[in-house]
Amino acid sequence: MTDYFGLLQLFIISLALWGLTDVWRSGRSMGVRLIWSAVLILPIFGFIAWFLIGPRATA
């Protein structure tokens, strides 16, 4: 399972970047763009923070 962890991360980040590109190319207002950008970006930063400083498994 851990062998595919990096691929899964790459896939999730790729989807977020695709979503950001779509949001910023849309004709929506700046406020809507910022809200959708936060929705797409914050979960990724939370996951990275958990991965770097979260709980460690003990053997």
Task: Describe this entry's structure for a reader.
- The chain has 59 residues and is mainly alpha-helical.
- It has one domain.
- The chain is built from 2 helices and no strands.
- α1 packs antiparallel against α2.
- The model has no long low-confidence stretch (mean pLDDT 84).
- It is found in: Cell membrane.
- One of its GO terms (cellular component) is plasma membrane.
- It is a multi-pass membrane protein.
- Its main location: membrane.
- This is Cardiolipin synthase N-terminal domain-containing protein.
Shape, please? Answer: elongated
Query: What is the N-to-C succession of helices and strands?
Result: HH
> How many domains is the backbone divided into?
1
Nearest-integer average pLDDT: 84
User: Structural class of the helices, strands and pairings?
Assistant: mainly alpha
Largest sheet features: none
The poorly predicted ranges are none
Q: Give me the Rg, rounded.
A: 15 Å
- Strand residue percentage: under 5%
Helix content: over 70%
Number of strands: 0
Secondary structure tally, helices: 2
Q: Whole-Å distance between the termini?
A: 18 Å
